[in-house]
Each structure stands twice: as structure tokens, then as C-alpha cells.
Amino acid sequence: MSDLLTSYDPLPFQLVRSGDMHSLLLICDHAGNHVPKKLKNLGLSCAELERHIAFDRGAAEVTKRMSDMLGVSSVLANYSRLVIDCNRSPDHEALIPQQSDGAIIKGNKKISGAQRQARIDEIYAPYQNVVKSMLEEVDRKFSMPATLVAIHSFTPKLQKKGKSRPWHIGVCWKKDKKTARALIEYLRRDKNLVVGDNEPYALKNTYTLLENSQNGRPNVLIEIRKDEISTQQGQKNYAKMLSNFFRLSR
After folding, report:
1. Which of 57, 67, 59 has the alpha carbon at shortest distance from 19?
2. Torsions phi, psi of 194, nearest 5?
3. What is the pTM assigned to this prediction?
């Protein structure tokens, strides 16, 4: 019996199966801003749950469009990172954040060990498990390590710090320099794009991508500035641009 999710709550993840045309899996760790009914919006207003602190606006739409364009599967996390951050390690201090960019998350204050474990068991673990199983499935299908691609979005500037971020899109990497360099060079052909190399973030706290990219698995994390993908046309443009790269690179 569930301790957290009810029949009124969505599943922990969305699995989009759009074919198996390429040895590739797309993931979106911060796709949704759902909060379980029992958590009563974590004490936050609806406006706060629409902020970037709750989810990566536009990233889910780009991921789904890329799935369709490339004919590959994708896994998207449905719950807000304020409930539990599916892109942090299970022992990370910000796995269940108590504050984010100036906002106090009241519903995360003084939660019990059992309440914390329920979020791990019912939301975090199912997402991580399906990412692993889908990678294994694609690996078997193509008899080679599938490329893992994580799609995120970032704000033009943080509300608290206020420093502007000039990049339209960032390519973030750690060990797989080859995939990252190829993507950066491809994107920089468009002189109107400001492309970040490990900007706006280096892969310091990233979990899902790095955890599942052992033993030389090709991988890259893509950060798109959210105002670039705030419209359907922007989402389509970036999905097409990125899909063209992965289609040509295989």
C-alpha cells in the first residue's frame, strides 16, 4: 500500500516510446511540477510552483518532440524537484530541498525519515529504475552502449543572485568530451547562438546522467535557456536542431 501517492496522483514518470531508430535514450529529470495530493503543494502558492525552482519549463516539450523526430524513447520525471530531485544522489543534501532561490519550502521542513523514504521509494526510485531498464533495452537492441542525452532548461538569471546568463544553450559534460565537442561545434555554426561549454553549470551535482554513463557510455547534458523554449515554435526549433545533430552523428 502506498504511503504517499494516491490514485489521484500521476505516475512517477512518463515513458514515451517513439520507436528504436537510433541507439539513443532521452531523459528529462525535471520535466514536471506535480506535487502529491497528500503534500498540499508543499505549502507553496501556485505561482511558486510555476517558477523554475519547481521544474524545467519547456524541457519536457523539447524532449518529447525529439523523441518523435528521432524515433527514440524518452523517460520524463513527472514530479517537481521540490518534492524530490531526481537529478541528485540519494544521499545529497538537496535531494529534498528546504529552500530554493529564495523560496522556503515549508512542506520539506522537519519531515520524518519514513516520509523521506516514501518519496524515494514511490517517486525517485521508479524513475531511476526505468532509466536503467530502458538503457539496457536499447543496449541489447543495438548491441552497443546507447547514448544517453539529458534535456534541461535554465533561467536567464537567478532571482536571488540576479546575474545574467548570456548563453542560449549550454552543452555540459564530464568524461565524454568527444560527444560534447562535436555538439558544441555543430551548434556554433549558427552565429546567432551563444553556446556554453559546461555553462551555465558544470556536471558537479548531476546524478542520473553520470550514474548511468559508466564504462564509456556516450552521454551529454543539454541546457536550453527557458525563454528560448517558452513557445511551441521555440520548442520545435530546438528539438529539430538537436535532432538533426544526433541523427547525423550516428
Report:
1. 67
2. -95, 115
3. 0.95
Non-local CB neighbours of 234 within 8 Å, separated by 6+ positions: 58, 228
What the chain holds in terms of domains, given with CATH numbers, is 13-249 (3.40.630.40)
Q: What is the pLDDT of residues 158-198, one digit of tens each?
A: 766 667 899 999 999 999 999 999 999 999 999 999 999 99
User: Would you mind telling me the total number of residues written for the chain in this entry?
Assistant: 250
Positive/negative CA dihedral, 18, 24, 28, 29? positive
The closest alpha carbon to 182, from 152, 220, 216, belongs to 220
> Residue 28: phi, psi to the nearest 5?
-140, 100
Residue 96 CA to residue 90 CA, distance in Å, equals: 10
In angstroms, the CA 41 to CA 82 distance is 10
For residue 234, what is its C-alpha cell?
Answer: 521555440
